Each structure stands twice: as C-alpha cells, then as structure tokens.
Amino acid sequence: MLLYIHGFNSSPLSEKGVVTARFMATHFASETLLQPQIPADIDEAIALLCGLTETAKASGEPLRFIGSSLGGFYATYLAERYGGHAVLINPAVSPQDLFEEFLGPQHNPYTGEDYLVEQHHRDALARYDSQAIANPDRFFVLLQTGDEVLDYRLALNKYHSCRLLIEPGGDHSFVGFEQHLPQIAAFLQLP
What residue stretch is flagged as signal peptide (predicted)? Predict the structure, then answer.
C-alpha cells in the first residue's frame, strides 16, 4: 500500500496528488495507491488514516506513505506508530504551534467545504505530535528553502537524522516534485 496524504485545505486533486497517481499508474500499476480526502477534523483524519493503515498491515501489505505539509505530519505519526517508510514533502512540524493564524472560518478550494478551525483541533494536533523521531531510517524528507508557508529549518531540525534532500529556492508546493518520483519510489521500495 502507498498512502498519499495531502495537506491542509488541499485534496488528492492537488498537483502533487495528480502527478503521484499518474506516476503510479504508469510505473507501478499493480501497487495499491490510496489517496483519500482527509477530513478537516484532526481526530477524524487520524481515525481514517489509522484505519487504512491497520487494514493494510493486517493483510500483510508493506506500509508506504507520502505526506505533503500537514500530510507530512500525519505520515510521521503513522510511520512512527505502525512502521513502514514515509516520504515527507515540506512537512509541517508541530503544526499546533502555527494554528493560531488558522483559527476561525476556513474554505477548502478543492472540495468547496466551509468549516471552522477551533481550539480543540489545535489540542488534537498536539496529541498526535511525534516530538522526536525514534526511527530516522523510515523517513526521506524533501525540503525547499523558498517554502513561503513553513520554515524549512524547523523540519531540518526535527528530521536531521533522516535522509534529506534540500533544494534552494522553490516554494511550499515543492517545485519540480515530479522529477523526484523515481527516487521516492526507490526509497519506498516499490517493486
């Protein structure tokens, strides 16, 4: 199983989601790719992701994750809890510390969903935060220094013992992501 986890106010229809699906269909069509729409509610998101992971694990499938931004936070939690390998793209580090600016009304442009970000969402993020990386060999972290949303140095500090790819410039979307998909597939040990 490869579980692609999109970021905050995003969807599997984001550019990285679409490019990943196309790459998998072309090169690894026999592999299971899951790209769920992640609920805005943190506890619901974790329940969905854990359920998918537990089902795959119970059936003996290798666990593989790609997480972008907030999806990187979720992928970290899953890989630390269940095992497997995770590729993180400009991951959110301790996003509960950033949520002050997101409290209140939100709109997901992909799904059209309007919802509220409330204090309990921030508290939930804190509960699922992997403070330290216990299994650095499970992670490949892609960072671009020009990320205008998240400070890449926070991820560099948290994932310093992991495999890292740091590119100057770029932005939060990770410019040129598709060029790294063969390297990502190799790290995830896709057959």
Answer: none
Beta strands in the chain (DSSP E): 2-5, 33-34, 64-68, 85-89, 104-107, 114-117, 139-144, 163-167
Closest CA to 103 of 86, 85, 88, 115: 115
pLDDT tens digits for range 77-115: 999 999 999 999 999 999 999 878 889 999 999 999 999
For residue 125, the tally of other CB atoms under 10 A from its CB is: 22
Residue 143 backbone dihedrals phi, psi, to 5 degrees: -130, 145
Delineate the domains of the chain, giving CATH numbers in brackets. 2-187 (3.40.50.1820)
Residue 139 near residue 163, CB atoms below 8 Å: yes
Place of tokens 């500090």: 157
pLDDT one-digit tens code per residue, 48-67: 999 999 999 999 999 999 99
> With a threshold of 0.85, does the pTM exceed it?
yes
Q: Locate tokens 């499970």: which residue?
A: 138
